[in-house]
Amino acid sequence: MVYRAAIIGTGGIAGMGILGMHDTEDIGEQRFVESHAGGYEATESVELVAVADVDPDRIARFGEAWSIPESGQYIGHEAMLAAEDLDAVSVCTPTYLHAKHVIDAAASDAAPSVIWCEKPIASSLSDAHAMRRRCAEADVELVINHSFRFTDKLQQLRGLFDAGLLGEIRSVNAIFRRELLRNSTHLIDTLVYLLDAKPGTVSGYINGENDAVDQLEGDRGVDDAGGGGFVVLDDGTFVTLDCTVAREISSMAIQFIGTEGKLYMNNDDGEWRYWRLEDGSHVEADLPEIDGAWRWDDDYRGSFVNAAAHVEAILEGEAANMSPAEEATRSLEVIIGFYISHFTGSQVSFPLDRPLNDVTVTSW
Q1: Residue 320 falls inside a structural domain
Q2: d(Cα 166, Cα 11) in Å, to the nearest integer?
Q3: Cα separation of 164 and 73, whole Å?
Q4: Helix pair angle (185-195, 152-162), 10° resolution
Q5: What is the mean pLDDT of the chain?
Q6: Same domain, yes or no: 109 and 240
């Protein structure tokens, strides 16, 4: 069986180049495999048949790059969802539009079984909850593209954590780049994925610094900025997060301390180091079952093909959603909590109640 897929949005993550990975002059002008379109192209039984955007020039350029006929190129997602019979829909639009596009797709006559939505899930918790409810009502599987989850090494590491590699995690220290919604959501979701725990309390700091205006040639200001703070998870694990610095000087590094050992992960430099705890002393050892460390050029680049294959497996009924909206909402909770904490000068406990669910952080 061949499954029919479509994309809403024609930006970089959809298929035309990602900032920080591809040359700036090529973004928007060339097709790139590290994308939703590239992932679909690599699958055996999913065919990209349609694309929608509000910009006719971008639609035409995307359609030509990815061999989508003019009949499958739509101005506006409403027209596409009304005309097409679809199995999967990718939402590759700015964060503030995710809720509308996901809800419209789930409620449409296109009747997709899977929606593969870019991270972060939404700009507010109320939007995230509405997306989850509508997809559940329509029996649509909502997959959030926190792409680190779709790398082989992180999946292997999750298996080791589940098997007790470090025992009970007590403390985590993590650093990455700003901004919180645009970039740092990857780091927070990695912790959500590996620790399988929910945030309990947060205390946050927002520095107001944003690189997007210069890097993306943005024409408007947004709330999204560098920040960080601490998170106490519902199992008592204490986590510190520092996502305050710019891309050019940042480093993605995480240190886990557990009752049976410790692990240091520097993903920028491709260095993972593991120590097991023996008679009160940490003894460095090879990390079992994992060959080498996680790298941007190898592991991250392959995550889109893996994610599309996962969408295919869900359509085939062969896999459960490994990046569900419920867990993506936990990452958003931490970020929203940081903002509320910073501007109120207080610690924030979860779950948030109205009207705090409606706090919106604008981003790109």
Answers
A1: no
A2: 40
A3: 50
A4: 40
A5: 93
A6: no
